[in-house]
Amino acid sequence: MSHSHAPRAGLLGLPWDGSSSHRRGPARAPAAIRAALHSDASNPWSERGVDALDAKGFEDLGDLLLSESAEAARSAITDGVSALERGVRPLLLGGDHSVTVPILRAMRPQYPRLQVLHIDAHPDLYPDFQGDPYSHACPFTRILEEGLIDRLVQVGIRTLNPIQRDTATRFGVQILPPSQWHGPLPLLPGVPVYVSFDLDGLDPAFAPGVSHREPGGLSVREAIAVLGRIDAPIVGADLVEYNPEADLDGVTAVVAAKLVKELSARLQGG
């Protein structure tokens, strides 16, 4: 273990897709992303000049073993994130987007002030979806209702409907559509940031391996630019909704691995 006080990124896989609608597959994502991450076709350096996978600042903690029971899986995720060593900032590989609720239940006790930057095609603000209040279409409704964060800023949203707009209005969610990705981020100054990155926030031309392809999204370059404008400390992140079964020649796995490296570098303070 490093004796440095610099934060470390802890990669933890959450192989869960039991809260998905439409099609399953994201439970297989962590293994596929790791394979791309460690491929000898690429190297581990981030664009900021950080060796994102160096053992001094990065640790792969494997995957959590998750029950087929959704409630038990959520409890295991909260417990797993809560159990991380002090100084380790979690970098979670979903899994579907429902995993963000139990992650933030673990994060909130450590951060009396916390905000989320959420990149996605969908706002995930349904009160419930197909009768399931913990569907992957609902996580941010639960997160806001439980008071787990102080602000939610969403980038790339292009499927907002009246039901979800009502939730956004009720909780003061800041929504930037894809055309405004380049604008200033309305984050609270100095408040730690958790990044929740749904790969369908990217245009399917760049990331076809998702269950819900939504044309008109961000490019990889634009998404990295958005992350680069976060000027508060990033204290945790998840990368969700990669579906290997929908991918084309592993293209999306490579994109996900790239984002892991960029996020790892930021979690290490780079």
Helix-strand blueprint:
Layout: E1 8-14, H1 29-37, E2 58-63, H2 70-82, E3 88-94, H3 100-107, E4 115-119, H4 139-145, E5 151-155, H5 162-171, E6 174-176, E7 193-198, H6 220-228, E8 234-240, H7 251-267
Parallel strand pairs: 1-2, 1-3, 3-8, 4-5, 4-7, 5-6, 7-8
Helix pairs in contact: 1-7, 2-3, 3-4
Kindly provide the radius of gyration, computed on alpha-carbon positions and rounded to a whole number of angstroms.
Answer: 17 Å
Assembly state here? single chain
Instruction: Give me the count of strands.
Output: 8
| Low-confidence segments | none
The proportion of strand residues reads 15-25%
Structural class, by secondary structure, is alpha/beta
Distance between the termini: 19 Å
Tally of separate helices: 7
Element-level helix/strand string: EHEHEHEHEHEEHEH
Gross geometry: globular
Strand order of the largest sheet: 2-1-3-8-7-4-5-6
- Mean pLDDT across all residues, rounded? 93
The helicity comes to 25-40%
Q: Report the sheet with the most strands, covering strand number, pairing sense and barrel closure.
A: 8 strands, parallel
Description:
By secondary structure, this protein is of the alpha/beta class. 27% of the residues lie in helices and 17% in strands. It has seven helices and eight strands, in the order βαβαβαβαβαββαβα. The chain has an eight-stranded parallel β-sheet. Helix 1 (29-37) links the parallel strand 1 (8-14) and strand 2. Helix 2 packs parallel to helix 3 (100-107) and helix 3 runs parallel beside helix 4. The longest helix is centred in the C-terminal third of the chain and has 17 residues, at 251-267. 51% of the residues are buried. The model has no long low-confidence stretch (mean pLDDT 93).
